[in-house]
Design brief:
Chain lengths: ~110, ~120
């Protein structure tokens, strides 16, 4: 069975500081990994997916199969980045997702 | 396109009553996914439906829970004889297809409280 772990429930940084939200997964096959974000009072929305290998709002994430990790990084945090972030895994490249428990990012001024 | 619409947003039921949660997918989307989020936890997959068919219900509790997605109308998640442990946020997502670099769009969720 697949599993996604986000070890930090809360991450608090100052504006302009680097951010890394950790995500580790366990799955015996070749998963597809995603990061979803939920801003205050808004819907959960896709931030990025590993196969796209793109940077969204300054965020990047690299799939490390050796360490089974998919950490989300941004070099300089902004206050508007404050939100809940969920790492998710798909075992069939479809939309049946296994989510991690989420990390609340707070960016302080 | 108004996005995925879920109603009601909040639902209070007494133990033993039935709860019906509705999800209207985005226009043109024929794939619907239901997730449950218990307090302080992440979203857990429940069921995947494609018009009139249940494709995967591996995350559905064996008893009291059922889901449908009729040819016309919204998808319904039905919980019979609710118990306190059913209190959670229930999210629905829809997509135009299941695979192939396609994004699932989420609704705002229904928060069920069982008293």
């Amino acid at each position: 069975a697949q599993r996604v772990t986000q070890p930090e429930k809360l991450l608090s940084v100052f504006k302009g500081a680097p951010v890394e939200l950790k995500c580790n997964y366990s799955y015996s096959g070749s998963p597809e990994l995603f990061w979803y974000v939920q801003y205050s009072r808004q819907r959960l929305q896709l931030l990025l997916r590993h196969i796209s290998r793109e940077s969204i709002k300054g965020f990047t994430a690299d799939l490390n199969k050796g360490e089974t990790s998919f950490h989300l990084k941004k070099p300089f945090a902004q206050e508007e980045d404050s939100a809940m972030y969920y790492c998710a895994l798909s075992r069939d490249a479809g939309n049946m997702l296994t989510f991690g428990g989420g990390t609340r990012l707070m960016v302080k001024p | 396109n108004a996005g995925v619409m879920q109603n009601p947003r909040h639902l209070v039921r007494r133990r033993g009553q039935e709860a019906r949660l509705r999800c209207s997918p985005m226009k043109g989307h024929s794939h619907v996914y239901w997730y449950r989020q218990l307090p302080e936890e992440g979203l857990k997959f429940m069921v995947y439906l494609q018009k009139e068919n249940i494709i995967d219900e591996s995350g559905m509790p064996k008893e009291r829970f059922s889901a449908e997605f009729p040819k016309e109308g919204p998808s319904i998640l039905r919980i019979q004889q609710v118990v306190r442990g059913d209190s959670a946020a229930y999210f629905c997502a829809s997509s135009p297809r299941h695979q192939g670099n396609t994004e699932a769009f989420f609704g705002q969720g229904t928060r069920l409280t069982v008293v």
